[in-house]
Design goal:
Layout (H helix, E strand, L loop, with lengths): L14 H9 L5 H5 L5 E4 L21 E14 L5 E8 L4 E7 L4 H4 L5 E6 L1 E3 L6 E4 L2 E5 L9 E4 L8 H19 L10 H7 L4 H9 L7 H5 L4 H25 L14 H8 L6 H15 L5 E5 L6 H14 L3 E5 L3 H15 L5 E4 L10 H9 L5 E4 L13 E7 L6 H8 L6 E6 L5 H6 L5 E4 L11 E6 L3 H13 L3 E5 L16 H12 L3 E4 L5 H13 L4 E4 L12 E6 L7 H8 L14 E6 L4 H12 L3 H12 L1 H5 L18 H14 L9 H10 L14
Parallel strand pairs: 4-7, 10-15, 10-16, 11-13, 11-14, 12-13, 14-15, 17-22, 18-20, 18-21, 19-20, 21-22
Antiparallel strand pairs: 1-9, 2-3, 2-5, 3-4, 5-8, 6-7
Helix pairs in contact: 6-8, 8-23, 10-11, 11-12, 20-21
The structure holds adenosine-5'-diphosphate (ADP) and magnesium ion (MG).
Length: 711
């Protein structure tokens, strides 16, 4: 038997089981071995069942391994065809009830006269306070075992194949492979040098250790997936992925861009010429990075990250101006109409005297707003800078010579949309801007093909926003804090998680409809209401009045999350804060404290939370303590995972089987560095196994010309 043999070569796998396994994605023996245990039980020391008096009375003693006899074994029928199996476990001293749910067959398999090694967690029953163990594992043992056995892996099911079967198959396969092929039963593909440098076990050692942990293994490390074996598997996976990204990058570098920039002026000089303010140090640095990319022979692929208001759009504007002066068109794509319009307005203010701009959104009607005419002028090259929504990537929009494409709020767009915009030109330069700080680990994987710039400095005069987390019965305190800002001439947002109380399953959350009036009265200032169910015209009209100051309080849902720019807004109340993710809270908070007018005082964000879980509390504590978008993003990633952090619309998020971006990111960083070095050495004889492994993973790699189109 070989590791890459079909699963049906494993002992005990016939056609029926083979089909079931295949349906669960398990076609080869290695697929079975890649199915790691979900947890490990420590059965090394034998314990005793808790006594009736309770020792200690309340605290559960945690997982126990005990030798017991089972008495009063019976099947009990509950409502609606559900049944459970009950028994009493007796360790010779104490007796404790045992119950199994959904495993009716146990009543026939277990034997009242035999001894069992029982492993489970005793808990007190709510009804009568008696100890009970639910769903323990039991294993028949000889009369008097003197030790409880080792560290026992527990598997999850594989599709239709139950855990007990999976366990037998995996163990059978590991035994068989070790017998027939020896200690190194699966071929190592990681170069010795990398393995030695990181002190990692070999692939055979790692797979053996996760499926058959030694008696000395740390159960804690295994359960947290931080054992050396887990590290080896995660690192190996990351290394292949990073090599893949590095290969894509390399391929890109074979194709230069057709257009050239004429920069007789340095970008910094252009900035001095058109901006009414001086760039911050961070802006200057990033502008230089952008300029270097533009002047280079390859298309730029750069991600600019920085908190809301740090001045990213200004940098994009300068890049567009440089393009226009070189006779190239540029496009800026924003995720919402409101944001596109805002960008258009501020870019026109800034660049109006220097170039021709147009706005293209799908809200415009072709006839009345003259969209047809606009598109024509874009198409024949008369417009230098086109600002718009995803309407920019629609069929009808054509450019004469697109040299630079800018995408704002990247996390709202998928990779595919990013590429669609780039396809509107011939390998244009691409600048991606995001205010959602992407944790370094995610940036390395999801955006591994992008260069990353960081604007980590705010323009002068912006004080940090003070944040307070309050419970619901302290909302008067929030009111007082906001009224103080309103008295100084500031404006306030009150953010509701719901429009009306009937939404979703969110019982008990504050809604605009129910408590909007209370807040309007408590804050005692002219107010308006904005939410997603209002028509665009009405929403925009209210927003403009808020921006102009005839409305001082805006009661809103999270529609204000992106982009809205009102420098006088210095207060925010977020209701039902326990329901929001960290990144979203931070994004909301970014709406205030954007102005430079010191007479308005320090901006205040109060997050009001209802009853919340421990996790929500932790989240809010981080929110209160930190204004650092990156710290927040890392924490968000840790708590919610990459899929949630990037949103479901994010296409192209890599799935890792062993590695976890939050837990193993140090390995990811190592893998990235190693991949850069290894890419040039794949042809060396010692790296043959690695190259084959990589090709197995990415067949396209064998033909490097493929996929060269697009960024
Ligand atoms: P972002 O796109 O990062 O949210 P913007 O580029 O829209 O930030 O800038 C936010 C506001 O700050 C704008 O009003 C802009 O004109 C202003 N601004 C940007 N850079 C500076 C600077 N260096 N000094 C003063 N004001 C600046
Ligand atoms: Mg912006």
């Amino acid at each position: 038997m070989e590791p890459f043999d079909p699963i049906t070569n494993a002992r005990g796998v016939g056609p029926v089981l083979g089909r079931k396994l295949a349906e669960a994605g398990c076609r080869r023996i290695v697929d079975l071995l890649a199915h790691l245990p979900i947890r490990y039980e420590d059965r090394r020391t034998l314990g005793r069942l808790p006594g009736p008096g309770g020792d200690p009375p309340e605290r559960a003693p945690g997982p126990l391994t005990v030798v017991v006899r089972l008495e009063k074994l019976r099947r009990v029928f509950g409502r609606r065809r559900f049944s459970r199996v009950e028994a009493v476990a007796d360790d010779g001293e104490n007796r404790v009830g045992v119950v199994w749910f959904n495993r009716p067959y146990l009543v026939n398999q277990l034997d009242e006269d035999a001894s069992y090694l029982l492993h489970g967690v005793p808990r007190r029953r709510r009804a009568d306070g008696a100890w009970q163990v639910a769903n323990p594992t039991v294993e028949r043992v000889a009369e008097e075992p003197d030790c409880g056995g080792g560290v026992r892996p527990v598997y999850g099911r594989m599709g239709d194949v139950p855990p007990s079967r999976v366990e037998r198959l995996v163990h059978g396969a590991v035994s068989r492979l070790t017998e027939t092929r020896g200690r190194d039963w699966i071929d190592e593909w990681l170069p010795d040098e990398e393995r030695a440098r990181h002190g990692l076990p070999s692939l055979s050692e790692a797979l053996t250790a996760v499926h058959r942990p030694s008696a000395e293994a740390s159960v804690e490390a295994l359960n947290e997936r931080r054992s050396p074996a887990h590290a080896r598997l995660a690192y190996g996976e990351f290394l292949l992925q990073q090599l893949q990204l590095a290969a894509v990058r390399r391929r890109r570098s074979w194709h230069g861009k057709p257009h050239r920039y004429r920069t007789c002026d340095a970008a910094a000089k252009v900035a001095r010429e058109v901006l009414p303010f001086r760039l911050t140090g961070a802006q200057e640095r990033v502008l230089e990075e952008i300029e270097t990319d533009l002047l280079g022979p390859l298309p730029m692929l750069r991600l600019v990250q920085g908190d809301v208001g740090c001045g990213k759009t200004v940098l994009a504007a300068l890049a567009c101006l440089i393009a226009a002066r070189s006779g190239l068109q540029s496009a800026l794509m924003a995720p919402t109409e409101l944001l596109a319009e805002q960008h258009f307005a501020s870019l026109r203010r800034l660049l109006g005297p220097h170039l021709d701009l147009a706005l293209v959104t799908s809200g415009q009607r072709v006839a009345s707003d003259g969209r047809g005419a606009v598109l024509e002028r874009v198409g024949d090259g008369r417009i230098d800078l086109t600002v718009g929504t995803h309407a920019l990537i629609q069929e009808r929009t054509r450019f004469a010579r697109l040299g630079l494409a800018v995408v704002d709020e990247q996390h709202r767009f998928g990779v595919l949309q990013r590429q669609s915009l780039a396809r509107k030109g011939q390998r244009p330069d691409l600048l991606v801007m995001t205010a959602t700080p992407i944790p370094r680990s995610l940036a390395l994987t999801v955006y591994g093909d992008l260069d990353v710039s960081l604007v980590d400095e705010m323009p002068p005069g912006r004080g940090p926003v003070e944040t307070r987390v309050l419970s619901e019965n302290h909302r008067d305190e929030a009111v007082a804090l906001v009224r103080e800002r309103l008295r100084r001439g500031g404006r306030a947002y009150v953010v509701f998680p719901l429009i009306d109380p009937g939404e979703g399953s969110a019982a008990g959350l504050p809604s605009l409809e129910e408590s909007g009036a209370w807040w309007a009265e408590a804050l005692a200032a002219p107010h308006g209401v904005v939410h997603g169910r209002l028509g665009r015209k009405e929403r925009d009209a209210t927003m403009s009045r808020f921006s102009a100051g005839s409305i001082r309080v805006l009661l809103a849902t999270t529609v204000i999350e992106v982009g809205v720019d009102v420098p006088q807004a210095t207060a925010m109340v977020i209701l039902g804060a326990e329901r929001f993710g960290l990144a979203q809270l931070h994004q909301l908070r970014g709406r205030i404290g954007r102005g430079t007018d010191r007479t308005l005082g320090q901006s205040i964000c109060t997050a009001i939370s209802g009853r919340s879980s421990a996790e929500a509390e932790r989240r809010l504590a981080v929110f209160e303590a930190s204004n650092d978008g990156f710290r927040i993003a890392e924490e968000d990633l840790r708590q919610r995972g990459p899929g949630e952090v990037l949103g479901t619309r994010q296409a192209g998020l890599p799935q890792f089987r062993f590695g976890d971006l939050a837990r193993d990111w140090k390995w990811l960083v190592e893998a990235r560095a190693d991949a850069a070095r290894l890419l040039d050495r794949l042809a060396e004889p010692g790296n043959e196994p690695l190259r084959r492994q990589l090709e197995r993973r990415i067949p396209a790699l064998a033909t490097p010309a493929q996929g060269a189109a697009g960024p």
